[in-house]
Amino acid sequence: MKRSRLPIFYTVVFFLLTVLYFNDVPAQGFLKASGKRIVDETGKEILLRGMGLGGWMLQEPYMLQLNGSAYNQGDFKRKIIDLIGRENTTLFYDAWLKNFCTKTDIDSMAVWGFNSIRLPMHYNLFTLPIEEEPIANNQTWLPKGFQMVDSLLSWCRSNKIYLILDLHAAPGGQGTDFAISDRDTTKPSLWQNEANQVKTVALWRKLAERYVNEPWIGGYDLINETNWGFQNAADKNGCAETENIPLRKHLIAITDAIRQVDKNHLIFIEANCWANNYKGILPTWDANMAISFHKYWNNNDQASIQQFIDFRNQYNIPVWMGESGENSNSWFRSAISLLERNNIGWAWWPHKKMGMNNPFQIKTNSGYQQLIKYLKGEGSQPTQNAILSSLLQLAEDSKAEKTIYHKDVVDAMFRQISSNEAIAFKKHNITSNTIVFAVDYDMGPIGQAYFSKDSANYWVSSNQRTQWNKGWMYRNDGVDIEECKDSLSNGFQVTAMQPSEWLQYTIVVGKEAAYDLQLRALSTPGATISLFVNGREIVPNIAINSSSAWHTAALKNIKLKKGINKIRVANTAGEFSLNYLQFLKH
């Protein structure tokens, strides 16, 4: 994919960080639960605006385009070991853990506006599986995971960001959604083996001992997204559970172990059914505790969060939306606005993966694509050297400075929460012969920067899955974008524009002048376009007349004022794809 990689952005970022964040800054004490609020030790309320580091300590297959190739990280790792051996597999994972999250990632998030990080931890970086313990029921501690947390904490501390520890993959695995917890289905789960539960408790006590005096540790998120039918195994995700007795018992045991060594830190609890079924869990049992829920693919209305507001009021306890994301910019803006109107902090998911609906996108490589095809049974087996080379390249490309930065995602999560203004996605200074590529339309809310009939995925509420960007590339709005093969392009085109859909472009003109505007389009028969300049329709319903090949439609004598102009291209009939707008001095 042809895309700028932020050289100027990072120059500015690093300058600001040098000035603002060079020295470690002490926190205002530990985060605490104070009635319905999370506060620091001065009593100042802290609204957590966070990001989850999904994909680092635990790879979920979809993040690496592995759906259909592996059902979880453990499955992928076993297949890689079979292909290139254990030593080479270790080389890849060492590089992945080194590169995927560095200080650059955390520095960037601080500049964007995040004040917290949720770290999804895999237990196997901290301790051995129970099946590999040399002495049964003893705990062997591994330095790798603790060292990774120490490094991350130092980067967070220097940026005044709270770090929330989240046990994402518990010993044995806490659910039937295997990708989330990296559960090995041939071995007993967390809920089927007491030794796994003992190890989980011991791990939290060890973490609490290590970080008891660290105020930039924002809290402990005990077990991520349990999904388990305790009363009925057929209720495999625990959504119909009415008691949740084993889950509550285990959360209390973990809390007791933490409080034996750490009375400072806030504790977050999550319910069954991906953190949303609290039946039998409440009331809480610790004075310094908050409840967490997760929110995906549902409507962004008051009803979608009301039960958690009711819990907050009934039990006088803080509520945190601990994980959400994997949707469009429009959905992000709407969800965060809803949460903040109700004084609920949030953590998004994830900051980085293959895919355009997160701040950083990891690029793929041809060797890795060949590996995926082989694992799916769709291609020949690559050589060992080719597989190792492609995996090491993938690890290298996971570095923040090697990724594709999606500023539209960050803009939707921060600037657009308090502003309806559409701003330029790229600078368009119009001269005597200027091309503006269609995919570089304005950045801002739907209805202000663009309009598309499909803007987000609400399948949990609607039972219908929707692709907002059918090409799944370049930007994360409800505008369909795909690869462009026209003779002149930037690699991308807006495609499948429907009647009533439109795109807006903010352009800058040096002095008042008239221009001829050429629209490079590909359409169905009968497709027409209207052109608006600064809110006024200038050219209505011009025919594209291009049913089989790219065609240039010429619009004559378009008058533009000096300074900023807003150009809007609207579909009034049929369907078309748009490559670029070209401004020619009249």
- Sketch the major β-sheet: 8 strands, parallel, barrel
Q: pLDDT below 50 for ≥5 consecutive residues: which ranges?
A: 1-23
Helix content: 25-40%
User: Which CATH architecture of the largest domain would you pick?
Assistant: Alpha-Beta Barrel
State the strand order across the main sheet.
3-4-5-6-7-8-9-10
CATH class of the largest domain: Alpha Beta
Terminal CA distance reads 34 Å
Spatial shape:
globular
CATH topological fold name of the largest domain:
TIM Barrel
Q: What is the radius of gyration computed over CA atoms, rounded to a whole number of angstroms?
A: 26 Å
Strand content: 15-25%
What's the tally of helices?
16
**Average pLDDT figure:** 94
Please name the fourth-level CATH homologous superfamily of the largest domain.
Glycosidases
SSE-based structural type:
alpha/beta
- Count the strands? 25
Q: What is the number of independent domains?
A: 2
